[in-house]
Fold each of these.
Amino acid sequence: MDMQACSRSPASGTEHERWRFWKHHKCPRCLEDDENGAHVLCCQDQRACTQRTKVLKVFDTRLRTIKTSKDIRRTMLAHVRAWMNGTRPYIRPTPQHLRATVSNQTMLGWDQFLKGRIAKSWVPLQATDFDARQLRNTGKSWAAALTVAIWELSWQIWDHCNDILHNRDVYDHLIDMDAKERSIIVE
């Protein structure tokens, strides 16, 4: 996979302005200035929150499908949801065996998690769980499947934002904003 593709979030308002597709870099959902990759994932517009809830349920199902440990799954979901909502994680106390890994991921960043950059210490924890359940799965294959699931989560949120952006009403509103800005500059 191309290194640029892995290192960047999908295009946001900031990139659209830089590439001169738009004269501004507002979020198409909440119209906040400086839309960037992190804002796409954390936008607090009601439509974004509703979509995020749906997508996180799909992500939870995907984590179950790849046989993620219940403690790991609940912990990941709580921290991702908290990062997206700008709150503290709402879970019962983090299990002792996960605390160091959660700390590692927190230092790396939950925004980085949503780009597929997971703390290495998740892998042996999940491998230990597979061994305890006498499953033939490996931590390495689980990590690959987790990364794909994370990318799908991020993509679905970005795609929702993109659908709103290219909705005719929003598109017309943004074009009108560009025209107003140009007319003010001309005056």
Amino acid sequence: MRFRQLFIAESTQTNLQQSVTILNNLREYDSHAFKIKTMKKLTPIFLVVVCINTTISCKKETIVKETETLKAVASQSISSNSLINTKANFGVLVTALSGDDKITVAKLLGVKYVRQSLILKDFTGELPLTDKYLSNGFKVILNLNYKPIQNYKGERVPKLFPTDMIEYRNTLNKVFDKYTPEIAVIENEPLNDNHYKDTIENYIRELKNAVEVCNQRGIKVADGGAFSAQTCCILVYKDYFSRGMQAEADDFAKRAGMEDRFIKAAKGKGSNQRLLVKIREAEKMVKADAALNLDFVNIHWYEPLSDYNDPRISAFYFEQTFTL
């Protein structure tokens, strides 16, 4: 089984120059990529997808001005080799722009990967933006969500995971009959209460079926990103604590800047019952990810990076977990 990690650092930015700065800042984490065991060897893979929400006016002169600004910044901050020759694989999710402008931004940032979402229930056989990305040489990370999280009024409504696995697999196959993404990502943050109102067991069932379909077709697949920086830190602390390594747990908590409420939760204490449930669900996801034939484990760290969500601090737990 090839098993690596998909590291997604997400950021909502309103300035293209800030987006370039984020990519440059993240480059320093190259040497700290996770080493996930791949049968008999360790394979360090580091993939960063920066989510850029660019609020550019529809006026032509404004688009031109922002584009020229990004070109100038790119020429100074992203040399022709700075992103291409790094061990990290950088990608971008650009929103709030038209398809052609998304292509322009991705090119100017010098990334190889682009992230796009697809609502499986709404798939009609064509993905025009994906076609554009592919024709421009980008590798597409396709987020496959069964249902939208917004209703027809634009209101956010947490959804259920699919229950009919025959229908689900058929729908996946219809997508893959037309498109072969670089990575298929199954749902988005399955432990996020703003996205879903279902059990983690139902998500694991969906993921298991999706992994089987992807494996049959030779498509690389990742879970939907159940692990945040907060979750990782809690699990690391709990792992030390459960093994009687209190000194190591305390040292880790200090280095990670963990809040007292998270330390209490890691010990199974505290008044936040929902957080305690989330920890148990995250532990189930760790076991499921380790058992499934996944290519990537999807972990979300959010920009700006700080001591609290520094992947160099909390990567150790997942390296241990998936190399046992």
Amino acid sequence: MRGELLPITILQPELSREHHAENCATIARLLTDVRDESVIVLPELWWRSDDVVTYLRWLQVNAARTQSVIVGGSLHTTAESWNALPENLRGKNPPATWSGVANLGAVVAPDGTVRAWYGKQHPYGVEVERGVQPALCPGTFEWRGARVGVMICADAWDAKLWRDCFCADVPTYRGADEPIVKTKSVTLRNKHRHVGTSDHRHRTSASGQFPELICITTQSVAGEHARAESRALWNALATARAYEFGCGVAIADWAAAEHPDGNPTAGAAGFVDPASPSAAFVACNDHIQHATLDISAVTAHRTRRVARGFYW
């Protein structure tokens, strides 16, 4: 492992659903204050074009400029645009088989390589009305010796996705009509009793074990809840998942604001470290938040939890 401390940069910028160029400029300005070798997390759908090639180029330029890996939020794009990508930019993901539009994002390293693609399995709100399709599974990559997972917005509320999509034998793609591949069950026992069977432990995977950090990229539309209530819900989710799975949770979001389409954003960005003394959610109170995850402390936390019978 290159370092036990993993720097994380979480964005909560003021964004527009109408002015794509302004969004690019806003985020580029915020990234001038990023530490080298950070994990930068951008919010969902900040990229307001369906041009996936230009999206990747923007991420490559800014990953090189910051010398950090960028979890690139997401964009709505078509299967045709995806299939037009050169194979080396699709990584291990096969050609798209969904129809219409999907919500996708990429992880790009400073050398310009695409470390992972990820997609939204649960289109939400206006996406349902517009026929947005489920596409790629949540993704994983490695950075500074740590394993990192990425989910988009509503997917984070599905605990089964956390269990299924961060395991070794889950494919990188799931079509709209295909079930997610089930993971292998393991029997959990201790010297006192038989606990039962489960597909969730800090099980080994192709790259090691359950990610030490999960990044959630969201555009938290307040919807039926007031902004404060929406923030409280995301706070509770992040804290519970961090403790349930023994991992850091970083949420990037749009800043709280009204928008012309009548769907206000809540500003729910923040970070939870399960190994910290309080294990409390630390909200992003500005447009950018810097955090550090101590990987050795997370490992020790997991060891203590296993000894107490956690991770079913």
